[in-house]
Amino acid sequence: MKMSPEARARMRRREQDVFNYYDDMGPGKGNCTWGPGILAHYGVCTEEELARPVSAAAVEAEFSRRVAEAEAGVIRQVRKHKLPQDQFDALVSLTFNAGVRGSRNVYTLVDTGRPAEAAAEIRTMTSTHVNGKKVLARGLISRRAEESAPFQAAAKAATVAKK
Fold first, then answer.
1. Measured between alpha carbons, how far is 130 from 159 in angstroms, rounded to an integer?
2. Cα(126)–Cα(142) distance, rounded to whole angstroms?
3. Which residues cross the membrane (predicted)?
4. Is the separation of the CB atoms in 24 and 33 below 8 Å?
5. Which of 39, 58, 143, 148 lies deepest, with the highest CB count within 10 Å?
6. Per-residue pLDDT tens for 87-103?
7. CATH code of the domain made up of 5-162
8. Which residues contact 108 (CB under 8 A, 6 or more apart)?
9. Residue 158 has pLDDT above 90, yes or no
């Protein structure tokens, strides 16, 4: 299974092209990131990294590589429950951002047929670690709402079907 072209385009717009390294929460704050939201390492960028340009080809190649890695992670982790395309797309987006390890609890909830709990768990995943402290990443709030929506819709549909 692959991420749909529409979901990939939506995620690509969200993960803006930045052709250099930057601190993801503003200068001197957050984690060193480059291109379309690719974590280089935890902690702020060095002066050398901040001065390093990144080509458009490198940005696109790394985005594609990371999407493929996220798709493979979702396929490996969700084996019992057949995912509709919208849920697969949402999990790929989540995995791209949070990683396989960071998405582990959501995979378990999805794979055991608990979409409402999966949606709730996704919506809680709005923080990051900065200098060893957990910090709210405001930009993740709308992203998590979008990623949780297909699971919330599935939970509502299942509730209506039971009535």
1. 40
2. 9
3. none
4. yes
5. 148
6. 999 999 999 999 999 99
7. 1.10.530.40
8. none
9. no
pTM of the model: 0.89
Q: Render the burial of 76-109: b for 16+ CB within 10 Å, e for the rest.
A: ebbeeeebeebbbbbbbbbbbbbeeeebeebbeb
Strand partners, 32: 23, 41
Give the burial class of 144: count Cβ atoms within 10 A of its Cβ; 0-12 exposed, 13-18 middle, 19 or more buried.
Answer: buried
- Residue 14's pLDDT is 86
Q: What is the DSSP letter of 15?
A: S
Query: In angstroms, what CA-CA distances link 109 with 21, 40, 81, 121?
Result: 35, 30, 10, 9
Express each pLDDT in 1-21 by its tens digit.
999 999 999 998 888 888 999
Q: Which two tokens stand for residue 39?
A: 């974590």
Backbone CA torsion sign across 78, 36, 128, 152: negative
The domain ranges of the chain are 5-162
- φ, ψ of residue 21 in degrees (nearest 5): -85, 150
